[in-house]
Design goal:
The chain folds into two domains: 330 residues, FAD/NAD(P)-binding domain (3-Layer(bba) Sandwich), CATH 3.50.50; 160 residues, Cholesterol Oxidase, domain 2, CATH 3.30.410. The protein contains twelve helices and 26 strands. Helix 4 packs across helix 12 and helix 9 packs across helix 11. The longest helix has 18 residues.
Amino acid sequence: MNNKVHDYIVIGAGTSGCVIARRLSENPNTNVLLLEAGNTDHKPAFRNSDLRSFFGTWNTDADWQYLTEEETYLGGRRIPITQGKVLGGGSSVNGMIHVRGSKYDYDNWNYLGNEFWSYKEVLPYFLKMEDYAGGASEYHGVGGPVHVVDHTDLTSAAKAFLAAVVELGYKPPPTDFNGPDMVNGAGVYQFAHTPDGKRCSAAVAYLLPATNRPNLTVTPQAQVTHLLLEGKRVVGVEYLQEGTLHQVIAEGEVILSAGAFASPQLLMLSGIGPAEHLRLHDIAVVVDLPGVGQNLQDHTLLRMGFECQEPQPPPSVITEVGFFTHSRSGMENTAPDLQFLFSSFLFSDEAEGGVFIGGTHLLCCPTLLRPQSQGSVTLRSNNPLDLAVVRTNYMQCDIDVQVLVKGVEIVRELMNTKAMSKIGPRELTPGSAIKTEPELRDYIRANCFTEWHPTSTCKMGRDRLSVVDPQLRVYGVEGLRVADASIMPAIVSGNTNAPCLMIGEKASDIIIHG
C-alpha cells in the first residue's frame, strides 16, 4: 500500500468525472487524481463515430455488463444495461446524442428543494461546455470543450419521416431540441462529434487537452473498493490495481462520479446507506442514509421495426430525426413524456448486439421519458468486486405502459401518412396482428428495453430519501460529494449525457467557488 496525498480525488472517469478532473486541475496549484476502473480509450472503437464501432463496444471489457434481476413486471425478463468501463465512461460507448432535456425538468429539480438548479441557473453550464457548429445564441455556446453538430446527411427515409410528423400536425423542422421549445416539432438530432466527424467523448473533450498537466494524474484500471474514513470524514480511498491494493489520501475532498449503479454501491460498501441493508452484509454503519440506492429511474423504449421498398444507405448516426411530445392533453406546460427516435437500421432478433445496417430496414422507437416506476440498487455482497444488484421495476406503474401504448399508436399513424407512403414501410414488429390495447400491453411488457439511462440513485434533495444536498455534499459525512447521473432528483426528459456534462461543470464551479 502507499499513501500518496492529493488535494482532490475523483472516482470514475465517466462523463461527469472527466469534466470535474479537467476543471479542478485548471488551477496549477491544485493536485488532482482521477481513478478509473476501466482502461484507456485509445482503441478506434472509442474514437470513431460509426454505428459498427458503437455496437462493437457492448459486452466487452469496456462494458460493466450489468444484468438486472428478473423483472417482475416484464414476465421475469432480465435486461442487460450497458455501462461504460473505460475512460470517458458512457460518453465513450453511447450513441453520442446531445439532448439537454426540458427546461421544466430543471425547474422541477429546483421545486424539489434544490436551489440554484433551475433551468435559468443550469443553462450557463450547458453553454459553457458547448462548441456548437451552428454558432452562438441565447441557447447555444461556442468555444467550449464539446463540439456539437446538427445531423445533416439525411437518408430519404428520414426526410419522409420529418414530412410525416408535419402531416400529423406537429411543427415543421427545424426544431432545435436544445432550444427554447423542444416539444411538438419535427427536427434532426444533435451529436457530440469532433470537427472531423469522430466521437467527442468527455475523455476526448476534457481529458485529452489536459493530458500534459503535471498536477493531473489519470490512473486507469484502478477500481475503487472503499472510501477511507476518519470518524465521519472521508479522507481518501482504497483501490485495486493489477491485484494490489493502494490507498491515497485527499487533503481536500473526494468526488464520487462512478455512475448510477457504482456510486451507491461504493457508498454502501463504505458504511453509508440503509442501516438494515448494511448490517445484512456485515458492514459497519457509519451513516444511516435510507435513500442510497433507491429511486432508480431509467428511460424505456420499444423497438418498432419496419421494412421499406426503397433501399437506404447506412446511416452515419444511431438516430437521424425525431420529436418530443406529450402522451395526453393537458400537459402543455410540463416536460414531454414521449420521445421518438428514427433511423434506417434495425436490431436483429438473434443477438442483442446484432444489427442490420442499411438496406430496407427501418427503426422507430417510442421512448418513455418520465417513468413513474422506480427501482433500486443494492449490494450483492460486501465484496467490492461483485456487481451490485439492479432491479429496475420497469412497467411497475400501469401509466408507464399506457404512455408506450400511445407511442405505438403515434408511430403507426406516422407510417400510414402520405409522406411515408413514398417508401412503403411495412411493420415487422410488433406486427399488424397485434392490434388491441390488451395485446399491445402484453407486447410492451414482453419487449420493452432500456435506453441505457439509469439515474437518481443518490438523489439530490431535502426529503428523507435524499442522499446529497444542492451542493452535492453527502448527508452525514464530510469531505465527500457525488456528481454524476445518480444525483438527478428525477430523470430528465431526454438523453442523459449532456445533463451529466452539465452536472460536472456545475459541480466543479461549486467546489472551486463554494
